[in-house]
């Protein structure tokens, strides 16, 4: 798993695995920030936790190569980016195509990049949310697997909206990884496949925090 911040999605996965709701194993947590709370969460759970600083490398590509040398050493079946705030270069993205996911706080393709809650409010969007998608060289542009929708309220500000979105991000990520753990989701010819059939639209998290799949 790659993370740059507080690691709340990581904690959701740790909890889901510990409670038997997700049959998976986290083999390592990697960050570009030594002070990332995600690393401490990982260590508290007895997980491998490592950080590299980008400023210790001459180029982004050299940093990516060093980071993914460590990631690949633990032989993950799937790499999850959750709050990882650095852009990944094309070489490592292509090398891990179909095996790398990102969770993004918007209903992609709307509101790519940063400050998504502010973007949604400024646009007057009636619905906001989160998406889990395959990572491709295009920023937040990979095929979307699943989404969780959150109504935008008339009195919302960015922090209030963000709090409701993150509450739905956690079950969305757990549910999406459950499908991967069951071998049901794959990327084929730039399209998401579920149970070996093309998925016509992203799966939607329901009111019971489940994906109807």
Automatic annotation (TrEMBL):
<keyword id="KW-0808">Transferase</keyword>
<dbReference type="GO" id="GO:0004644">
    <property type="term" value="F:phosphoribosylglycinamide formyltransferase activity"/>
</dbReference>
<feature type="binding site">
    <location>
        <begin position="85"/>
        <end position="88"/>
    </location>
    <ligand>
        <name>(6R)-10-formyltetrahydrofolate</name>
    </ligand>
</feature>
<feature type="binding site">
    <location>
        <position position="102"/>
    </location>
    <ligand>
        <name>(6R)-10-formyltetrahydrofolate</name>
    </ligand>
</feature>
<feature type="domain" description="Formyl transferase N-terminal">
    <location>
        <begin position="2"/>
        <end position="177"/>
    </location>
</feature>
<dbReference type="InterPro" id="IPR002376">
    <property type="entry name" value="Formyl_transf_N"/>
</dbReference>
<dbReference type="InterPro" id="IPR004607">
    <property type="entry name" value="GART"/>
</dbReference>
<comment type="pathway">
    <text>Purine metabolism; IMP biosynthesis via de novo pathway; N(2)-formyl-N(1)-(5-phospho-D-ribosyl)glycinamide from N(1)-(5-phospho-D-ribosyl)glycinamide (10-formyl THF route): step 1/1.</text>
</comment>
<feature type="binding site">
    <location>
        <begin position="7"/>
        <end position="9"/>
    </location>
    <ligand>
        <name>N(1)-(5-phospho-beta-D-ribosyl)glycinamide</name>
    </ligand>
</feature>
<feature type="binding site">
    <location>
        <position position="60"/>
    </location>
    <ligand>
        <name>(6R)-10-formyltetrahydrofolate</name>
    </ligand>
</feature>
<keyword id="KW-0658">Purine biosynthesis</keyword>
<comment type="function">
    <text>Catalyzes the transfer of a formyl group from 10-formyltetrahydrofolate to 5-phospho-ribosyl-glycinamide (GAR), producing 5-phospho-ribosyl-N-formylglycinamide (FGAR) and tetrahydrofolate.</text>
</comment>
<protein>
    <recommendedName>
        <fullName>Phosphoribosylglycinamide formyltransferase</fullName>
        <ecNumber>2.1.2.2</ecNumber>
    </recommendedName>
</protein>
<comment type="similarity">
    <text>Belongs to the GART family.</text>
</comment>
<dbReference type="GO" id="GO:0005829">
    <property type="term" value="C:cytosol"/>
</dbReference>
<dbReference type="InterPro" id="IPR036477">
    <property type="entry name" value="Formyl_transf_N_sf"/>
</dbReference>
<dbReference type="GO" id="GO:0006189">
    <property type="term" value="P:'de novo' IMP biosynthetic process"/>
</dbReference>
<feature type="active site" description="Proton donor">
    <location>
        <position position="104"/>
    </location>
</feature>
<dbReference type="Pfam" id="PF00551">
    <property type="entry name" value="Formyl_trans_N"/>
</dbReference>
<feature type="site" description="Raises pKa of active site His">
    <location>
        <position position="140"/>
    </location>
</feature>
